[in-house]
Amino acid sequence: MRLTCPLCGERDRREFTYQGAASMLERPSGGDPQAWSDWLHLRDNPAGLTRDLWYHEAGCTAWLVVERDTVTHEIHAVSLVEPLDAD
Question: What superfamily does domain 1-25+48-87 belong to in CATH?
Answer without folding.
Answer: Folate-binding superfamily (3.30.2270.10)
